Amino acid sequence: MTVAELEERMTSKEFSEWMAYFAIEPFGEERADLRMGILASVMANLWGKRKGRSWRPQDFMPRFGRRDADPMELLRRVKAINQLLGGRDETHGAR
User: Fold this and answer.
1) Distances from the Cα of 1 to the Cαs of 19, 21, 73, in angstroms?
2) What is the pLDDT of residue 94?
3) pTM to 2 decimals?
4) How far apart are CA 8 and CA 69, in angstroms?
5) Is the dihedral of CA 76, 78, 80, 83 positive or negative?
6) What pLDDT shows up at residue 62?
7) 52, 62 in Cβ contact below 8 A?
8) Do the Cβ atoms of 38 and 58 come closer than 8 Å?
9) 50 forms bridges with which residues in the sheet?
10) Alpha-carbon distance 46 to 65, whole Å?
11) Lowest CB count within 10 Å: 19, 58, 63, 82, which one?
């Protein structure tokens, strides 16, 4: 599906809901990297200790320069995208 097709089929409200869901339950490549990092750290800790501490999943995950965002900043971004796409804020007590 192309971006244009997706824009025709998905409302800004639904898109915002998917973004909020992803913030709570990430999926995709980043989550897959975490799963593999967990597996790699378990294997590394079974077969050899690191001097001073055990291996952690993060030791085996790629770093691409992303930083964790503040939850309120994520909410502001979702609201801004929703507004840009012509959506309305239907949350209780919306400002």
Assistant:
1) 18, 21, 29
2) 54
3) 0.48
4) 29
5) negative
6) 81
7) no
8) no
9) 53
10) 30
11) 63
